User: Fold this.
Amino acid sequence: MVKDCLACDLAAGRLPLPGGIIHETSYWLVEHSVGSLGVGTLIVKPRRHVTRVAQLEQAEAEELGPLLQQTAAVVDDLAADCSDARLRAAVRATRDPDRAAGGRAPRPADA
Ligand SMILES: [Zn+2]
Assistant:
């Protein structure tokens, strides 16, 4: 866990995490978003500080697909009558040297 990384700080309890950790596996955590997407948007993030999908270990990558499917199924069940429920997976490149070097995700105050 890297200090001053939003994802790590939330996972380590250094910042308040609305609803706590919803689900966890060997390599992944599922939480509510604390950013602009807000509570109700679930984030699937690695337990360890990883900033690039290409850096995932094989076991982490193998666990990700089924976890995304299970998480989406839970959201579908909870939001069965909500027409705005969607599944999104985002992989984003950045030229921000702070994020590239330290992998610090944006904090709510950055938005
Ligand atoms: Zn981190």
